[in-house]
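Schema walk-through. Below, the input block comes first and the output block second. Nothing else is stored per chain. Lengths vary across the set, and this one has 261 residues.
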Amino acid sequence: MNSASCPRCPVDNDVMDNNLTDQERAIYEWQIWVQDLGETGQSKLKSATALITRVGGLGGPLAQSLAAAGLGKLILAHGGNTKPSDLNRQVLQTHAQLGKSRVESCRQRLLDLNPRLEVEAVPENVSEENVAGLVASADIIFDCAPLFEERFLLNRECVRQDKPLIDAAMFDLEGQLTTIIPGQTPCLACLYPETPPGWKREFPVIGAVSATIANLAALEGIKLIAGFGELLTGKLLLFDARTMEFRKITLRRNPACEVCA
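--- output ---
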C-alpha cells in the first residue's frame, strides 16, 4: 500500500510548506532533497506527534532518528531508572545517568540533538490505566515494548482509536517489523492471538541489531507521516543478522480476530 493514498495518514495533506523556518530549511536541506519528501513532507514531520513506548534498545535509537529527522513532538513512555545492563544498547543513556530516571535522560539527550523538538517524558510503562490517554495524545504510535502484554494493549487501543501502529521487535540476532493501519491491515492479534510460549522480558541482545530494527521503524514512520513510498502494511519484515538476510511475509487478517474482526 502506498502511504500517499492512505486515508489514515496521521498528518493532514493540507499542511502548508510555509510552517518551516529558514533555520529548519537549512538543517533539513539534504533531507528535503529526497524524492517525494520535499518541503511538504518535512512540514508534515514538523506537525506530527509520535508516541514511543519503551525508549530502550529499540525505542532509543528510533527516537533519536525521529528527532534528527525533524519530528515536531515525541511522547516517551518508559518507567524505571538506568541500569548498567542498559548501556550496551540504549544509546540515549550514559554512565552519568546510572540510577537516575531513564526517560529523563532520553528527553535531555534528544533536546541536545534537536532543541526545536517538543518532548513529553512519561515515567511509566504502558498499562490498562494509561494506554487510552497515551494513544489519544499522538498521531502515530511506535511499539517498542519487550512484553507482549504491553504490545497487545497498544494494538487493541490503536484499533479502537483508529491510530496507525508500527510494531518493532527483536530477539538475539533477529528482528521483525510491520505497520498496522486499523481497518485496512491485519492487527498484531491476527499475527499473535496469544503470547508465544517462553517469551521473557530479558533476552539476548546486541545493540547494533536493535538499532537496525529501530531505524527501519523510524524510516517506516517517516514515510507514513510524509506520505510517500511503500509501507509494510499487510507485510512482516524479518531480519536475520547472522546471515544478513531480509525477507517479507504477507499477512492476512483473521476473520475471527477478537480485536479487529
